[in-house]
Amino acid sequence: xxxxxxxxxxxxxxxxxxKEGNPSKRRASVLxxxxxxxxxxxxxxxxxxxxxxxxxxxxxxxxEFIELGIFECMxxxxxxxxxxxxxxxxxxxxxxxxxxAHIIGSYTMNMEExxxxxxxxxxxxxxxxxxxxxxxxVEQRVAVRALGHLATYPSTFSAIANHGEVxxxxxxxxxxxxxxxxxxxxxxxxxxxxxxxxxxxxxxGGVEMESRKAEEWASQLQCWSLQLINCFAFKTExxxxxxxxxxxxxxxxxxxxxxxxxxxxxxxxxxxICHNKMGRxxxxxxxxxxxxxxxIARSSDDxxxxxxxxxxxxxxxxxxCHKVVDKAVPALxxxxxxxxxxxxxxxxxxIINVLQECIQSQAASRNSISPRTKEQIEELxxxxxxxxxxxxxxxxxxxxxxxxxxxxxxxxxxLFSSGNITGAASKYSEALxxxxxxxxxERVVLFSNRAQCHLLLQQPLAAIxxxxxxxxxxxxxxxxxxxxxxxxxxxxxxxxxKESLLDAILFINECSQSNDPDLSLRQNKVPDYAERLVKKQxxxxxxxxxxxxxxxxxQCEGDGGGIYGRESDDSEWETASESDIGNDGxxxxxxxxxxxxxxxxxEGKDSYDRASIKGVRTAxxxxxxxxxxxxxxxxxxxxxxxxxx
Length: 645
Known about the structure:
By secondary structure, the chain is mainly alpha-helical. 63% of the residues lie in helices and 2% in strands. The protein has 34 helices and 4 strands. A two-stranded antiparallel sheet has the order 1-2. A two-stranded antiparallel sheet has the order 3-4. Strand 3 (632-634) and strand 4 (640-642) form a beta hairpin. Helix 10 (137-152) crosses helix 11. The longest helix is centred in the middle third of the chain and has 27 residues, at 207-233. The two termini are 50 Å apart.
């Protein structure tokens, strides 16, 4: 090889090779470098490997290194680290298996052709050994990432599946990953491996940053394991392994946390399983899963539509309908007026049609649904007929109905102000029966006001129903601030921390963008009551909470306890009525919209965004990200806690 630099002390230096101006010589030198590197024991090998890692991340679709043998080189380096512990512990070689597996994953995440080359190069066996935990959880993370990419492509999936232990190992890792990271790294600061800390923080250091990145990586380890399992779930022959009750019941709780919201995690895998008839049976046999699906469907989770899909498929399947219908129908009824959710156009009509078919099919089936469920569905179908009837009404008659509903609503407001909460709820119900169905804005207010009444009457389930109906009617969906806050409180009352947290975060975001002086954040400050609820739910929904309880990191399992200790005022955060007052008590009811919204011209503008599912998810993440970037919470011990942790 020609000498390309007179300053470099290392013969055959990779960085000097890359500066070679002659393309043919450069390729020949790179080819030689990849062939010889695994057999060399020189110091400083981690430097070119880290350079290759940067290149793979920046240019994952560049074929040059693929053609010159980078996969063979990385596979050989992983094997060397697994078999030669003396070499692994020398110099900085401990980093090399991590970088090698990461490079394989980066080059295979987009290009099926590259994945085929990787399989042919023999990368799967050493990656499987890392997946087993032969080194540490850090290497497991990048191994499962790379294997997940290889399993995505039809041409390389069989090569993954031929290693029968991959699926079992992934299931085990998905269930244990959070505990592994907590007990092996997070829990004891003084026992953290230095190379783990360096990889996590890119050498920036700092215990707080290490801990935050460890939580993010733990979430990725779990989510990437679920992604790999998801590839198997598309194949019927693997569903019997995946659909074991002890694994299925944990999936709703695997949500990635706020640090990894780009992954559908457990709900995504449930949706894939539920799409197959063989998978629906085991899911329908787990009541806790159905309950969780209903909660996710009635939440502001980015993956809400996946839970709705699952419920609809379970009801459409005659072999599972009778097992789930009584639990699923109330949740679907609350969502029956959603116009568009992601790429689901006319979702409300789809729900209505599925429930109508359910009634018809059950009439000819031995497995009848309960009278109450049947009555609820029939009420929904009657409202559909009512809407058709209203469309043919003269405008004058509609104005009369609108005026009558407005009068009753004002009576409800008066009763609420005087403390007659039960009477107010009754009036709002009466107003809803009078209000034209196409008057969506006013119905949002009525449902939201009645949800407030249910909160004060200690009826959280009814409050969730009404708040969800208000959020479903609102344009855009899930963006009505006061309904978000009321549902957040209702979910808190029944101990659903994640659902409460997501609603509270979106409530803060909506307040920051609102023109309503009662809601807008003053000087960009989070309202105290919202801050307290968010902190409380972040402790309860903390990714490591179960692991911390198991390993003694949390002294008390109650809502007031947490890794940050007990907050003295946890039990004192405002009640539904107190916390909803945004201007020193001037808006106790929270009657969101003024009476001008009854105007027909305003009603005629009711329309829902027709965005793609990607657009909806992006909008939700962006809005959450804006809030995350703007607000920081101070904990009792003085630590500064960002919402995304």
